[in-house]
Specification:
Blueprint lengths: L6 E5 L8 H12 L5 E5 L1 H10 L3 H9 L3 H6 L8 E3 L2 H10 L11 E8 L5 E4 L4 H8 L4 E3 L2 E3 L2 E5 L8 H6 L4 E5 L12 H12 L6 H11 L12 H23 L4 E3 L14 H14 L1 H8 L9
Helix pairs in contact: 1-11, 2-6
């Protein structure tokens, strides 16, 4: 007996580029393509958690309104384990969004983390969705690791940047993968983003401008000149991008997705979270460009959502 295929959605790591996941999901829903299985790594885990708990549209409205000042206001800077602890950011999410347990969801959901001590790939399939997402979002050198059941967890992108394998394990027949690691980004913060940050700092009386300038000089590249000495996060960003691109190529060669979507966001930097509108628009446009292929794979879709 023929049965409708189980559709899996693998949402990859990629920092600020991950807002493209929102547009991809919204456009898939508009086509009537509704994944029953969702696996997320890092930023993909966060967007996936919001999606499976039924809050994606509200979340999209919020992130599209973020300014550079809002982004920096949600970061709790620290020198212990990473530049950002992440508790302020995820505490805000918990206060503003529902946080159901994974086992109570209609969709199957899993996030990918890396156990710091052993380097093992860890799949989190139980407990609150936002805690599972936070465990996957511990980018080395940027976000502090998080403790889950007496084990310290690092970013899932270290071991499985685009979790196609997790979708398969949870029963997906057809996997749609969103790969944010196919385009290496050379700079943490391009000139236009740094200019925006400095403008925000200049308009805020509470900012210690001397401290800001020291931080900017230490963290950001002084210019877009390729010959300029890189800043701290230039080095971190480039290293992580190279590593995750190589791991993604290897993992997906062994277990390729039926549909691989690659958002064109080559000028996005690690912390460009204030550019959500551009990333979401690209995610939607990407699905529109590939809609015939997607529908050919999934067969007869569910009734499309009205625009």
């Amino acid at each position: 007996m023929n049965h409708e295929p189980v559709i899996g959605l693998a949402l990859g790591s990629g920092s600020a580029r991950g807002w493209a996941h929102i547009g991809v999901i919204q456009e898939l829903e508009k086509l009537g393509v509704r994944p029953q299985v969702v696996a997320g790594t890092s930023i993909g885990a966060l967007v996936g958690a919001v999606y499976v708990s039924g809050q994606l549209d509200e979340f999209a409205e919020w992130v599209e309104a973020l300014t550079m000042r809002d982004v920096f206001g949600l970061l709790d800077f620290s020198l212990a384990g990473g530049m950002v602890k992440g508790e302020k950011l995820f505490g805000f999410f918990r206060d503003k969004h529902r946080n159901p347990n994974i086992e109570d969801l209609e969709k199957k959901f899993v996030t990918i983390a890396t156990e710091m001590k052993s380097g093992r790939e860890v799949w989190i399939r139980r407990g609150p969705v936002l805690r599972a997402a936070r465990a996957s979002c511990a980018l080395p050198g940027v976000f502090s690791p998080v403790q889950v059941e007496d084990r310290w967890m690092l970013d899932g992108g270290l071991v499985n940047p685009v979790p196609v394998s997790a979708c398969r394990a949870l029963g997906a027949d057809i996997v749609i993968a969103v790969n944010l690691n196919a385009q290496l980004v050379g700079a943490h913060m391009p000139r236009h983003s740094r200019d925006a940050a400095e403008q925000e700092a200049g308009s805020n009386d509470k900012v210690d401008h001397g401290l800001w300038q020291k931080l900017a000089d230490y963290v950001f590249s002084p210019s877009d000149d390729p010959a300029a000495e890189p800043g701290l996060l230039d080095v971190v960003s480039a290293s992580i991008n190279i590593m995750q691109d190589r791991i993604t190529r290897s993992r997906m060669a062994g277990d390729p997705a039926e549909i691989s979507l690659v958002p064109q966001l080559e000028d996005f930097a690690l912390m460009d979270f204030h550019r959500a509108h551009e990333a979401i628009a690209e995610g939607r446009a990407l699905v529109q460009r590939r809609s015939e292929e997607i529908l050919a794979w999934v067969g007869q879709p569910a009734k499309p959502v009205e625009a």
